[in-house]
Design goal:
single chain; 36% helix; alpha/beta; hydrolase; 8-stranded mixed sheet; 236 residues; 25% strand; Rossmann fold
Amino acid sequence: MSESPRPTGNPARQNVTFPSSETTAHGYLALPPSGQGPGVIVIQEWWGLTDHITDVTRRLAEEGFVALAPDLYGGNVAHDEQEALRMMRELPVRRGVELLSGAVDHLLDRPEVTSDTVGAVGFCMGGGFVLYLAAVEPRVSAAVPFYGVIQGDMPDFSRLRADILGHYGEQDRSITLQALGDLRRTVKEQSGIDADLRTYPAGHAFFNDSRPEAFAPQAAAEAWRGTVEFLRDRLT
């Protein structure tokens, strides 16, 4: 990906389990070369915990973060859009937020994490979960939704403490510019926080380089640079 160079290091990475919402959750953890750093939660697309999401998790680790991608589907990965839609619908928003809060607990309890709050980065369904999680979890101080899809009602942002940097495609038919305006206005009215929602000349899933029909290299590179700078500024 010439527009967004991949890191050349090899951060420590491992599969982890942790208690979450009265069950045992699983996730993919990547440590930075230094062995420690601020914590970031990475939230999957509707496909599941795919190679693309573990790759993003590794890339964040190379940038100096302790990155954890919780598996919201319990090891299942969708193979087509119909299956992905079914799996997403079978995960109630409240249940997903409970599992993600458990991931925040686990990350902040790890000795490698140097921050007392975490960032959250998510894609599509996961971008929506970034907003739902930040709305109820004061330990999230930096929220980065990539083309985040809101499922059902918009969150109540009155308890929001996180700054928001969002990345959206101007040609995304699932998230209109009007919807982004409504989101920005609601966040401001309920929390007083000005959400930085950026748009790019691209469609949905423009950051996903495993989907050549959607991937937009220049937009992905710009969004990645902004995300890393934002997380460093808020968490270090």
